[in-house]
Amino acid sequence: MCGIVGVYCDDDSFTSRIAYYALFSLQHRGQESAGISISGEDFKVYKGMGLVNEVFDDKTLSRLRGNSAIGHVRYSTTGESKLENAQPLFVKSKSGSISVAHNGNLVNYRELRRELESDGRVFLTDSDTEVIAHLLSSYLLKNEIEEALALLTEKLCGSFTLALLLNHMVVGYRDPMGFKPLCVGKLENGYILASESCAIDSVGGELVRDVKPGEAVIIEDGELRFERIAESNQKAICVFEYIYFARPDSIIDGRSVYSVRFDIGRTLAKENPVEVDIISPVPDSGTTSSIGYAYESGIPYIEALIKNRYVGRTFIMPGQRSRELSVQLKMNALKENVRGRKVLLIDDSIVRGTTSRRIVDLVRKAGAKEVHFRVGSPPIISPCYFGIDMSTREELIASSKTVEDIRKAINADSLAYLSLKGLIKSVRIDEEDLCLACLTSDYPVEVPGEICLRCSARA
Amino acid sequence: MCGIVGVYCDDDSFTSRIAYYALFSLQHRGQESAGISISGEDFKVYKGMGLVNEVFDDKTLSRLRGNSAIGHVRYSTTGESKLENAQPLFVKSKSGSISVAHNGNLVNYRELRRELESDGRVFLTDSDTEVIAHLLSSYLLKNEIEEALALLTEKLCGSFTLALLLNHMVVGYRDPMGFKPLCVGKLENGYILASESCAIDSVGGELVRDVKPGEAVIIEDGELRFERIAESNQKAICVFEYIYFARPDSIIDGRSVYSVRFDIGRTLAKENPVEVDIISPVPDSGTTSSIGYAYESGIPYIEALIKNRYVGRTFIMPGQRSRELSVQLKMNALKENVRGRKVLLIDDSIVRGTTSRRIVDLVRKAGAKEVHFRVGSPPIISPCYFGIDMSTREELIASSKTVEDIRKAINADSLAYLSLKGLIKSVRIDEEDLCLACLTSDYPVEVPGEICLRCSARA
Amino acid sequence: MCGIVGVYCDDDSFTSRIAYYALFSLQHRGQESAGISISGEDFKVYKGMGLVNEVFDDKTLSRLRGNSAIGHVRYSTTGESKLENAQPLFVKSKSGSISVAHNGNLVNYRELRRELESDGRVFLTDSDTEVIAHLLSSYLLKNEIEEALALLTEKLCGSFTLALLLNHMVVGYRDPMGFKPLCVGKLENGYILASESCAIDSVGGELVRDVKPGEAVIIEDGELRFERIAESNQKAICVFEYIYFARPDSIIDGRSVYSVRFDIGRTLAKENPVEVDIISPVPDSGTTSSIGYAYESGIPYIEALIKNRYVGRTFIMPGQRSRELSVQLKMNALKENVRGRKVLLIDDSIVRGTTSRRIVDLVRKAGAKEVHFRVGSPPIISPCYFGIDMSTREELIASSKTVEDIRKAINADSLAYLSLKGLIKSVRIDEEDLCLACLTSDYPVEVPGEICLRCSARA
Amino acid sequence: MCGIVGVYCDDDSFTSRIAYYALFSLQHRGQESAGISISGEDFKVYKGMGLVNEVFDDKTLSRLRGNSAIGHVRYSTTGESKLENAQPLFVKSKSGSISVAHNGNLVNYRELRRELESDGRVFLTDSDTEVIAHLLSSYLLKNEIEEALALLTEKLCGSFTLALLLNHMVVGYRDPMGFKPLCVGKLENGYILASESCAIDSVGGELVRDVKPGEAVIIEDGELRFERIAESNQKAICVFEYIYFARPDSIIDGRSVYSVRFDIGRTLAKENPVEVDIISPVPDSGTTSSIGYAYESGIPYIEALIKNRYVGRTFIMPGQRSRELSVQLKMNALKENVRGRKVLLIDDSIVRGTTSRRIVDLVRKAGAKEVHFRVGSPPIISPCYFGIDMSTREELIASSKTVEDIRKAINADSLAYLSLKGLIKSVRIDEEDLCLACLTSDYPVEVPGEICLRCSARA
């Protein structure tokens, strides 16, 4: 759960600004830290904790001159929130300056690190990105970038979409499974790579196309080329980007995220109709599917809940009373809209169920006659090992409870999930090209302690 | 354009937290500064520049102990953004500690200040709130609070809704015209006053009722009483609170803000129907009226635009290219939703028209066949002198242009405003009890250089 | 215990820099806060907590443009360390902008404030400087500055050396007793007023002369004039400026501070000879008098103690062991210099005696055969009410103990103080023109609860 | 020019405090950054830019729990002032956690780094300390610490006094030449290693002895042992520690720094007598030798110059006038002491001569009849490559000018330097055991581009 960008711009005073704006558009992918590496007369890295606009100001961006840059916004999946883990990582090597921005998660990180340590290598961070930098440095000793990426691909297991800055060269790379997205845009006087197309829009660029799984995009001396690095016999595109994570105005692997969510809502309406007076999203995650559901069903779309636009940044104070207050702080029910009515609430997913329960109670307390709940995805039953921060299996309510049990737990009058088939139909990508592990427990690569059906199949 | 609160709580370690949460819910009313005054064993004031959660942390709140408190969030109407202008203002006087939080604007501020200065008085800030503190101190020398407020009311001209902390006493007061709102809530173990009822909801309180124009609410020794201070022959409730300013989940003077906006949308649909494929809000200001319009017209509500949730806090860099980029940063058009379609955009109001133009162009560029525009209020033709930050008359596009000229200026295929009658009907408050000056140029109190029809009538 | 400056400079971009450098040279007079008021096209005030170079940077100084300025460094005499108490104080009044920087202490502050409050006046700070601003504003309503200062002098009781900025006019004033110093310097293209002449030296100016007690210096339209405001029948120049407080390179009321301290050392040697191997100061307060003692006695000046140059800014951590460590942190004994020797330590004064005890022990522990102690002032027996931060009477060791008792308490082999006569001889100012209250209990103005011999005399 | 410490303490809540206090006492060795690594239940590093008391506060120290710690204060010898260069450096390796604090400079740093890079290694900083960490990690793969240090010694060329924290083990090591000092102290419940003995005094410890060149001190499981790691046929103890760098209250390699400087002053008086009225130090660097000169010559020690105690931390503003002012800001001449007198100024050394010139002018302008200058060291003619920040040869005034030329350049009536013989006599360490390269151009190890007489001898 991170966002990455790469930029080449003829005007070396504008490159860092483009990277800044692009990262700003990817802020939803990570709020913990932000950073930019840039290569001009010298090589500079600037990063800090916090939001993009907290880390950078005009003065800082003015100092970051150069034609080539990469950037990163980080979402902390571990509890550790430290500046040293902020990206891009920057190292100096025999081949010169190497900067790495990484979106994904290496399943064999510990193993790789142990191997490198046995060689006397030392590590300054706890991030799997440092392992990537070490390997890349070794491979680049005797190889061009294409071959080095191929060697890296053989070594790494897990998800890794990368933006690299190698001296003046900008490189984007997507692992052969293609877990996490990456796309390329054309600027008036340069190119941009980004996790999502909304970043390209935000800087006035044109989407060229998605980088394919196993493909690299290389910008050298102002020229862009695509290179196939590794065969991609089997893809594993993360379905959760469509369900929840990506911005609705992005187009990922050819599919509009808004359209997918709208279709999810329509499919949900067909699969699980319900007689209610109004349809309301759980804001903001359920908005688009609610609009789709209302469109399909003809039932009025009227909000039952209002979200405090500033809430994302508050801290919750210790103590029981404070915790109770915290629910009310984030959302408020609209009494006039729900009083005496049958209300359908729609959300994109249910993880632990505790928030859903509080929301249902809020709407009931505001006077709703009935509160129904629909979910824009099948039940989440297994953890993600490829970069999405879900709970452990113990915390996933659907890993141990039936739908009826969950309905009771969240205190809804009725509850229904989207079917897996309905989801795939809405996404409109072949089932075998999607990673659905969190919904099916079927992991596309071997994860210690988890069953990997496809691996078995391959074996 | 500020938010104020007053709190009395039996548990002196919780008072500042309630004030904090309440201010947090009123954050939309002012983002420049925040502050809390509290009266316990001693009298403390803490204020700072920035958002409520930037100014306060748990440690600070823990130190602010006492049973009585008032708070303030400030929206800077002048260019001057200085800590010394942050509220609540706190002074010491013969009558003890006086702290003032003010929502409104004094039309005769300069005159009053000159008068006080002629007496040798000195001023440490440029705020009209300091004038209020001076007068209050003088009146309290020989009078009880009720009489002091009555004397103050005779002296002040303009809008003034106040939260006062006088030693241990919490006082709320609304000027006889009642421009800006104030309501009272009951807590489990205390009371709360707030600009909007959403703040009462946020701390789990129950709305008791609105404070009436000319009425004071006084909390002394844990007892709350209402006192009529001044006759209110003629009210001037700000209609813009309903149109734009207040949070949709608030109830102001008995009317749900969401319902008013929803009805505005419905009325607009009846007054100005249009044949389109989809209805989309200009996010977020046009959301509720769009839902109402869609409800009334039966045309699908599908978003044409997505707003970057983080954009509120960004800075825009200097330079032409940066300014152009800034439009794209705030919003993105959803190509798949608008391509080849007739789109109706709805916003709450048009001030200068430049943003509306950019949004229409964005939707056109994304492929819309036609772009129509509807506005949830009549044209704004006159500036506000009572606390809403509108442009000067020169900048108000509707002050000099016809609707057809504005349509051309914003490049829409059609444009229509809500009628004044339609607005009043949607608000459901008697016309004579509303301040409609920005829409009619008819000011409820005399403003130098402006015509005051009602004053003439009274004279 | 504060430092004040006033500057007039033809070059409006240099005025604030001169004030900055001058304040920097007066840093020893106050480390809590620093501020500058400047009058150019508009009137600006900038102040902050901390050292001069922490509060100001080049950017800030560049923005403070104007020809006239005053500045202040504050030493907190109360425990309260708040920005609102930082000076210069700035108010707006009928007569325009008034900014006040004050060195001194008003004995009748409470009384004056009560009087003003009875008139309905309000106060935003707890500082006696705000009372001065109120009175000044009132007097300036109908009077020129000279008359206003005369009226102020009649009203105020205590010590008050002032730097004022009244619109574009810079004014320096010293109360008729002349407690705290003020001198005037000539710059290449302007004038400077400062608490001490070292500030004039630091900006390359020439000392013109001291401002006399009861005299004002007024800089208006680039012209400087002296004005006698009040008769000064009886002076009370603070002797502690010479003993401890002022910088040794300053000349105050015609006397070099270094020379006074050197002479104190010589006199001490004559009054209280002792047979020792080396003479060492308690650094840094005893340095100059030790050099004088060594000069007079012919005994070698060799340091027994080294002070950590960075220690002034450290914090001492809680806990007994930390407190013990803190002594060692500030100073270290030079074993090689004291081992087996008779050592004479000289300090400027003894307040509570605890530090002196620790220092004597430190030197003993380092191997000294004998440790003798000499003090460059008579015993301090009474508190100061005019601006020097001494302990209350209970804490002054000499207020209740004999010299022999003190010798035992600090564990010295012998102890002697300078005689009052010896002090006066060293200062070379007439006894009746000095304030010696802390050494004699004879207060020059009436202090509630203290005996005022001179007042009695006058009565 | 850095300071290092190592601490073992039985009380794990006190270890970081001891390290803090010790670093505080070594603050003169580096003001750019400070840091502590500590090993308890886990391994923590905390470092920051600025002074020790700016980087650490009580809360931070409370969180740093453990029995073993090392610390570092850094003086920036390069222009680059970055957090990433702050020490201790911390890496994770096969052998566990390795933290390194380094005082010295590696002459073959570039070469070693290139060698490691050829192996694919990557570097995150520009510091030679990272090279040490890499090598140490490799050597520890198969060796105990003693052997690893021996291997390291064979590899490194230059000066390297180290404090290491290897998991729970604290190690101090001094290269076989012994350029930079290191000593060991005994605490009530533990041990301390430090660059200078003043740090041991500051925490109430007892100096055990200096670590010898080529010797390591290892604290493991609370037990301390010394280990000889490398033969030390030829030492090169930095003479500048005695002349200028170390604190006067430290004892280095058995010699009191104060005594050395005092003896330098006495020797100078014998070698270069002069007929003057007063002897004054250039504060603070010339203080001790001035006292020694006065002692030997019998001429009165009276200060001609006063230093502003706060000046160390100021910034100097751009512009010619500001630069001129800056001289006056740092020091002021005492007119009464120098007027009409013959003055002898003594400083520890002259580097570029510009400051000496300004000081002489200052004293002349204050009225001195004659100004003579004596220097407590021979002329500095060659740069230091082992950690002392001197100018390049071009900037060293004595590298190209005769003493008479220098006298003219600094505008003194007479000028004399201490002889090399006089210096060695004062230090009382065998000439062959000292590094005198900056005074003789005879480098103890081969430096590219410099002549190494001893190497030649060895060859």
Characteristics:
homotetramer; Glutamine Phosphoribosylpyrophosphate, subunit 1, domain 1; disordered C terminus; globular; 23 strands; Rossmann fold; alpha+beta; 459 residues
Describe the structure.
Four copies of one chain form a homotetramer. Chain A has 459 residues and is of the alpha+beta class. The first copy, chain A, folds into two domains: 2-233, 4-Layer Sandwich (Glutamine Phosphoribosylpyrophosphate, subunit 1, domain 1), CATH 3.60.20.10; 257-432, Rossmann fold (3-Layer(aba) Sandwich). Chain A contains 17 helices and 23 strands. Chain A has helices at 15-25, 52-55, 58-63, 109-117, 128-140, 145-155, 197-202, 240-245, 257-271, 287-297, 320-330, 335-338, 354-365, 403-410, 420-427, 437-440, 453-458, and strands at 2-9, 33-39, 43-49, 68-74, 89-93, 96-106, 158-166, 169-174, 183-187, 190-194, 206-210, 215-220, 223-228, 237-238, 251-252, 255-256, 278-281, 305-307, 331-333, 342-347, 370-375, 414-417, 434-435. Chain A has a seven-stranded antiparallel beta sheet with strand order 3-2-4-1-10-9-11. The first copy, chain A, has a six-stranded antiparallel beta sheet with strand order 5-6-7-8-12-13, with helices on one face. A four-stranded parallel beta sheet of chain A has the order 17-20-21-22, sandwiched between helices. In chain A, helix 14 (403-410) links the parallel strand 21 and strand 22 (414-417). In chain A, helix 5 (128-140) crosses helix 6 (145-155). The radius of gyration of chain A is 23 Å and the shape is globular. Chain A starts with a strand and ends with a helix. Residues 313-318 and 455-459 of chain A have low confidence and may be disordered. At the C-D interface, helix 1, helix 7, helix 9, helix 10 and helix 11 of C face helix 1, helix 7, helix 9, helix 10 and helix 11 of D.
